[in-house]
């Protein structure tokens, strides 16, 4: 079986990828089934592997698998292996570490204080350094996942309570994390001090639910209560008691703005705003900032659709499906050798020739990463007879890597990392190319603009301003410098 | 592996289903790879099984599998098992007969005249009677597929040439068929006298290509030449010679109008018209025939989108994604017992609450079959705060079964087969419900209206006027009548 | 899963192979479970594939699989798929035809007279000619098995009753067959006029049982009644009525003498004699005919053990396990390149060095086919320090192919087909080599000697005297002669 | 797939089971292939799981699987995953810990000092206590195997060199172990101070080989050098340097005497003696100690065969295969309900009726554990017509559990743990029953008799005299005593 991400194969995909989704529920008689359904709604956040751990008051049970949630948790048998009123789960794209089954979360350990399971969305940017220290003291790691560092820090903490141990551990950790933790005492959900990765909270009857996005609450019929705040630890006991802690005091929040641009589902609420409306707003900003004399607005489906609707409404141009997306993308295909050049992209996207033939079109996509797909889409429009192709992008140029749990190519492979606007336009062979401005993006999410002194979001992929130190990266560059090797800026 | 149709699980699907897609190519060095890619583009026509047969000048090779094309034909090894310059394939929903591997097409037999492989889209409505006659003469059937009847009729035909044998066989056959046939002499493509099921023809360099839809030509970069005409047999030799025959003379064509409504992909050209434009036109007709005082037009994605764009453009109401569709539908899930009633449909569709809250919405879907999904969608809109929900359907009421290769529920399960308009509206709990008229539908596909004396399309699912006799059905009703059993009208 | 025959891999095996075992039971409430157990006891007759068909009074059910009985029929689920009081099954080595699942027996067809299932041990030596005739009349074959010819002959027979149709069919057939047939009316067991392949009959309470060997009766606790006689058709109805027919009149029997030598299990009764005793007797004849001045008698385990016990008892030499056989032979292994030459054979057989060191040994094996294993075993004994190695074979030289359902190499690969005794001894590098005489073999099975005019057994593999015409072989040689190709004598 | 031990299913097996075999090779270009072949020859020591770890000078590679060696390591691909000149492997029956893949050895860890892999035959009898201490200091265990304790003790040792760390770790360990250890510096093999479990050493060209038994050397063509002595640590570097250490000084050896009785293959050399000869000797001792007036000696195959040959030779009674063993035991079968009672045992063993009918037989088996199989075998002989059945056992009564890596039932299930001789005879329904004496057993292995003051072997299963403390067992009994629960003597 082919377990690879169907969206990453061939040229059909050229996106940044959120690397994980987490879900937890406590106090529900069918916790594992709810968890499976919730993770299914988060499938877009990670398609490579999935795991669920449950607790029935006495034992922890774990089931992991490669592939999609539906490939692994659709049967009654699979759910019956996970008894109990508490369950937590994880979908995974790839993140730090290889792809073996032992890296599939939730990770679990029997500590002296009892069982401990954790599901983690994010990335710890000093994990290598912490691991070296732990191994030198005799710790044995079973995975290559950065998340296991957290478990070892908890296991070796001298503090008495689990909350104190966890706080002690997380104080040593730098980077981004949204955690769902299970112990025999209950569930805890934690978000890093800047809240880089999302985490929300809901209710389903007496049960308390945590999830990366509100759509996971919707699918199980839970009510969205509020987000877990940046730097907040929420503890939930089996009797339903909820306690909130802020062990790191108050620091300014910097949630990931790319959740609005692409990562979250449009029907989610992120940072108190509708993602769909944010995307439509970006399209409207783009129409105002970068208008275009054309006949049609055509989205690159599906991620470009909300911005294209916004662009069309603001510009008054008709919105048309000039590109049709297949529901059956599947994996890399053997290509017939003498077929047209673009069979790869055509498996996913096909021109709606009758619509675009002879027309001047505004193509709307959410972002440009390597630019390879954009080039092929522009070419496909021209092959279908489009007279002019104007490319409008619903985010600023993506010129910097992300170290907070997002799969980004090396800077040298990012189109905006190696070219200016004119060169990018030339590369994708569009008649014109324009991006929304960084301030336009901030306006679209309801702010007056970007606060340069203290940005309201993490926007490092656009600006290169990272909100945390990047210890492992710095160490690697030091080592490479000593070895006189060329240092790659953003790998 | 997922052997079941992901779209048919649970309540997330309530559609008529086209039951097959066929593809053939002759004269290409990598025929099997082109065939796999072409079938992939036809995946929406059948998700249950797939098969490809190739011929290398000496031997026929066949590979079959359950599930999607990408599950079975993505590897170089799978394609390498299918050498030769001629290949034909089939994707299958279910059609007549059980689901065993032996029913997966292309069917193949060693006849006295040599190898014979056939892929069939359609349904033979006197297959049972023909099979009884053949078995009584000593024929042994290896599948329960109606298509095997054709092979036995060819095998026992006394005519000398393959073309004559095939014509002889098809003269005995009643119903719908679009066939791709392979013999050691070359490829033949045949369409039944009324052309009920689609079949088109294209060119890729020196190779000749046949496919159920033009999108399968697009994906391999082939040029669309023309459709195979109703009643036409096209023979292609290995030297590229093409011969056209019309063994049944001229009969009026009756292609399936539901290809415009739902079956074909919007980017296909069917019966010389853009399917996307037909659907937009239906939406416009609907806006004219059944206007509505509302705030938003919301499509039931994805099949309702083109009609919704048409409705929005004609009515001037804004088009908004009030429902978000998941890309990861997967199979039936174990449901948490105390979750909201509608988790099933929510896995596929989720309300975009911020958009529909407090609004009067026009919901656009392509058709209503059982009505169960429609009810849940309406309820989902109300749960998300919609003030009014007006349901508009881009086809007339579907009140009759199809016997030409489409999976239809029994008439007693078709909403329009058991209720009038008022009852249907009550059933789905919409504030209003309206369907496009049958004449509106004919206008949308470019005609002045339906010609009652000689309808230009097969529209039996709407009108109950079947263009062929239905021998097996009549025989079954006779038998049931003799046994004094109640006869189900349309099962 | 192990699809290959573990005994055929590498050099560890150099035997003739019985190609099938059949089993049938009628009148038992758990027919399929008894059938699985019976086939398991016949596993040595065919390890490549297994199938069981059952009948519950209304429907036939079939389950097939590659590999061993235990791999496919150990679970309650697998047996539950096969309801009913009648079941028949088959284990298969390879026989005529490729290895696809469609060749796995029982074969089944829906005839005009109802369902018809057949399991066949043997080989039809005019199958190709019969198939050509059937195909030219329009028959379509689904397998490449010779057994399917019988089904088509039954299907096209003009006789009224099933017994008459089957007799009609078998009259056209030449070669060897032991058949278990199931129809909605009951079970029939047939053995070819000379009874080349074995078939016995037993009782388990009210149920009637048929099997290739008596061990299959033992394992289910059934009582051995008698053998099915050569040329006999036994019919058993669901009410327990048994009818015996002899449609071909009386012909002299010629059962396969190799069943005594190697094919049957030693605890079976074949042709009214204990196979174990026959083998011990052969060893005793060999000791008398070919005595040897040595220290020890060492069997090549396991098949050489009974003859070695006989040889030791008759000669007074001690019987010792000088070779130890592994229970875990498994499949071909990747060999370390610089290991000793004989790792292949050592996986199966290992010298018991302490026993053979410095000794003069008599090695006893049941037969020599290609001689490759014999050579390695002799070498292994010498490497372990044996002073002299005298090879004694408990059958005459095997110089001719078998066309009656036994897998034999081409004559040019049979050691005795290409060498005389002195050359054979030289080839296997033994100090002496001797075979039992053909008359000694006949004496060991209780006869005065071989009746040259009318041999009491089929011994064609030793004598080249085939008891039936070999039509397909003759046709092939004719064709090859016309093409001036060299003709292989016995392929 | 069924991964359970085919020999333990149903009643067909009633044996003590050696729980592991180990193999290691260093200095061979195709180390992993040799390792697979060696483990295959040790398959009888563990059928449940298998693993191999190799090292190519830079990286360690591991491949594990459930089932047999041949199921997991027969392909070139599987071996190609394990490059390098050093490889070590393990076959596993079950031993301490559950059956998950994470318990399959070799276990591996990245320590601060580099990679560390270990394969272990034996059992650590204070593993629970050591694990508690390690976990309380923050160690995280990934398996439930007692072997992991050794790794954590090495990881946390303060000594500088790997040899010192390992010695430090093993000083804390109590029980039985034969270890093959791999580090980036080379291979080490260690045997516990009393040498309870076996370990031998050999040469294959320049390569050094370690294995549980000499048959694993034979199969790869290696020369048997000597055994690893009790308490010896042998280090082998990549340059071929071999160093021997005895960190525990000299203690009297106590190797497991049951290796002679049943565990080792008859063609192995254990404790400097031929196992086959030991078994024949036991049979001879038994014939002298417990003669019998009978007609035949019949072994319970295969393990009873050598002792039966000895008994026959000493007594002058003929040796005959009165029981035939199937090569295809497979797993538990669904039994037909009304079949004879003994179908289970009959799948493995079948009476050779013609041989035993009307005869007085001496049945020879190697040991009696629960007695359930013995009862069935005796009954099978009577059903086949034996006039008298005298049971002779080639070991003393097995009345005590083993805690050194052997799977033993609770004492209450051992026939000799709950009955005296007369009751045992009554239970198995033999006409007479006798066991070899403990001194007879010691004589058979070449000693004057058992030295009561200082026994030359571990014979605790016969005598209850355990050569080491049993800390975990004692702790468990203490706990159970405090809870006033009944304590099972030997569980």
From TrEMBL, chains A, B, C, D:
Catalysed reactions listed for this entry: 5-phospho-beta-D-ribosylamine + L-glutamate + diphosphate = 5-phospho-alpha-D-ribose 1-diphosphate + L-glutamine + H2O
Annotated ranges, domain Glutamine amidotransferase type-2: 20-239
A GO BP entry: 'de novo' IMP biosynthetic process
Name of the protein: Amidophosphoribosyltransferase
Family: In the C-terminal section; belongs to the purine/pyrimidine phosphoribosyltransferase family.
NCBIfam families attached to this UniProt entry: purF
Pfam families membership: GATase_7 (PF13537), Pribosyltran (PF00156)
Listed InterPro entries: GATase_2_dom, Ntn_hydrolases_N, PRTase-like, PRTase_dom, PurF, PurF_N
Cofactor note: Binds 1 Mg(2+) ion per subunit.
Annotated binding of [4Fe-4S] cluster, by residue: 256, 402, 458, 461
Catalytic residue positions: 20
Known function: Catalyzes the formation of phosphoribosylamine from phosphoribosylpyrophosphate (PRPP) and glutamine.
């Amino acid at each position: 079986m082919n377990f690879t991400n169907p969206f990453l194969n061939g040229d059909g995909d050229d996106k940044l990828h959120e690397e994980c989704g987490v879900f937890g529920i406590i106090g529900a008689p069918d916790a594992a089934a709810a968890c499976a359904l919730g993770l299914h709604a988060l499938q877009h956040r990670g398609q490579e592997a999935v795991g669920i751990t449950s607790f029935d008051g006495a034992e922890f049970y774990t089931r992991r698998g490669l592939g999609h949630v539906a490939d692994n948790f659709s049967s009654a048998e699979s759910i019956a292996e996970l008894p109990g009123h508490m369950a937590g789960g994880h979908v995974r794209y790839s993140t730090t570490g290889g792809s073996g089954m032992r890296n599939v979360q939730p990770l679990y350990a029997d500590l002296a204080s009892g069982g401990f399971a954790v599901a983690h969305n994010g990335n710890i940017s000093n994990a290598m350094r912490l691991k070296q220290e732990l191994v030198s003291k005799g710790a044995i790691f079973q995975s290559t996942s950065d998340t296991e560092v957290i478990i070892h820090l908890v296991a070796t903490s001298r503090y008495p309570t689990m909350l104190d141990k966890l706080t002690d551990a997380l104080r040593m950790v730098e980077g981004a994390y949204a955690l769902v933790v299970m112990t025999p005492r209950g569930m805890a959900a934690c978000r890093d001090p800047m809240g880089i990765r999302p985490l929300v909270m809901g209710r389903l009857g007496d049960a308390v639910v945590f999830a990366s996005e509100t759509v996971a609450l919707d699918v199980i019929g839970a009510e969205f209560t509020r987000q877990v705040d940046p730097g907040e630890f929420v503890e939930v006991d089996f009797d339903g008691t909820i306690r909130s802690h802020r062990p790191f005091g108050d620091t300014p929040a910097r949630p990931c703005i790319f959740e609005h641009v692409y990562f979250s589902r449009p029907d989610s609420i992120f940072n108190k705003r509708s993602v769909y409306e944010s995307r439509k707003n970006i399209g409207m900003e783009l129409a105002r900032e970068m208008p275009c004399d054309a006949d049609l607005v055509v989205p690159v489906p599906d991620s470009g659709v909300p911005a294209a609707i916004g662009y069309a409404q603001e510009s008054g141009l008709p919105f048309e499906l000039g590109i049709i997306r297949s529901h059956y993308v599947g994996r890399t295909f053997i290509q017939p050798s003498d077929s047209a050049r673009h069979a790869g992209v055509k498996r996913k996207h096909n021109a709606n020739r009758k619509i675009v033939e002879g027309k001047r079109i505004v193509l709307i996509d959410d972002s440009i990463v390597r630019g390879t797909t954009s080039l092929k889409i522009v070419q496909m429009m021209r092959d279908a007879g489009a007279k002019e192709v104007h490319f409008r992008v619903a985010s600023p140029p993506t010129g910097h890597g992300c170290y907070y749990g997002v799969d980004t190519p090396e800077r040298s492979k990012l189109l905006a990392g190696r070219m200016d606007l004119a060169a990018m336009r030339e590369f994708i062979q569009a008649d014109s190319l324009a991006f929304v401005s960084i301030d336009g993006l901030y306006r679209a999410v309801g702010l007056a603009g970007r606060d340069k002194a203290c940005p309201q979001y993490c926007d490092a992929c656009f600006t290169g301003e990272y909100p945390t130190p990047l210890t492992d990266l710095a160490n690697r560059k030091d080592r490479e410098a000593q070895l006189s090797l060329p240092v790659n800026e953003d790998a």
